[in-house]
Recover the amino acids of this structure.
């Protein structure tokens, strides 16, 4: 073999070796990327603290917490029986003067009408027993009272939510439990005052909750949703519910390390609508994105879409 032939053989061997190394290295990179994708280890969003602040992306530590266990009930707003009054005269007679009409507001002690007694022929006033509004009138000048209801008054500044409680949850519903009521964007917190059987004979009970209706946002007959706190659970790890996103068919949170945000698959437990238990996937003290976590998810999905092309 001459010198020229030997050099040609050596070059061929070197080229083949180099090609083989590159292929092996390439295969390892693909495998590594595949494994990292499964574990979310190689997926990361890098963002400066300034940009995070501008986008209202904040982080919170994973801590032990008390999670409120809640049961959802539904019901309607009804009048407070103590705020309704059907007014009759004390002594029957002739109605001489009617001072109010349906819809008029009245204060306690206001005169509603003047009646002339049949027995004494003396006139006396009928007055309002409380502040409220006239919701019915059955009195006109010159008529005889004859023991009938002349006026109906109501004060709707306090109303009741009557919540339907079916038998499967009745054992967990108690007097004094906290209730978060909501309808049409309005919310109010109160407590269960008493529980009664259904008045219409249906096989359920009614949990009665007093509501401050001084704003007028809780009109009679309105359908309401109620979250009743039935118990609390101590958990080792909890995060805000807003921290959780669905990513690659898994429930994840985004762990913050410096200016890097990485998805972490988690197993979740009970939630009270604000916080949720993390059964596995996080350690105490780790920091996770608490607000606008969907923006981190969107950035990762956008990056993946770019790689696919």
């Amino acid at each position: 073999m001459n010198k020229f032939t030997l050099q040609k053989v050596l070059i061929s061997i070197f080229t083949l070796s180099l090609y083989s190394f590159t292929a092996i290295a390439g295969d390892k990179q693909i495998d590594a990327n595949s494994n990292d994708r499964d574990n979310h280890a190689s997926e990361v969003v890098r963002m400066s603290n300034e940009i995070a602040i501008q986008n209202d992306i904040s982080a919170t530590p994973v801590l032990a917490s008390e999670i409120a266990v809640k049961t959802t009930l539904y019901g309607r707003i009804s009048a407070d029986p103590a705020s309704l009054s059907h007014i009759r005269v004390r002594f029957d007679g002739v109605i001489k003067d009617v001072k109010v009409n349906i819809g008029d507001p009245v204060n306690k002690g206001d005169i509603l009408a003047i009646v002339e007694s049949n027995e004494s022929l003396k006139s006396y006033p009928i007055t309002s027993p409380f502040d409220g509004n006239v919701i019915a009138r059955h009195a006109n000048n010159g008529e005889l009272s004859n023991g009938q209801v002349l006026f109906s008054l109501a004060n709707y500044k306090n109303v009741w939510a009557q919540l339907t409680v079916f038998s499967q949850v009745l054992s967990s519903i108690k007097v004094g439990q906290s209730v978060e009521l909501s309808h049409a964007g309005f919310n109010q917190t109160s407590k269960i005052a008493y529980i009664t059987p259904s008045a219409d004979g249906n096989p359920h009970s009614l949990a009665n909750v007093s509501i401050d209706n001084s704003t007028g946002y809780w009109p009679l007959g309105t359908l309401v949703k109620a979250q009743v706190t039935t118990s609390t659970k101590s958990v080792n790890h909890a995060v805000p519910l807003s921290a959780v996103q669905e990513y690659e068919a898994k429930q994840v949170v985004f762990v913050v390390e410096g200016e890097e945000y990485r998805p972490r698959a988690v197993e979740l437990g009970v939630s009270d609508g604000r916080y949720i238990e993390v059964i596995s996937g996080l350690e105490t003290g780790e920091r996770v994105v608490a607000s606008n976590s969907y923006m981190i998810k969107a950035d990762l999905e956008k990056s993946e879409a770019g790689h696919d092309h």
In short: The first strand starts at residue 45 and ends at 46. Residues 171 and 213 are 29 Å apart (CA to CA). DSSP finds four helices and 21 strands in the chain. The chain has three domains: 40-63+236-308, 70-80+157-233, 84-154.
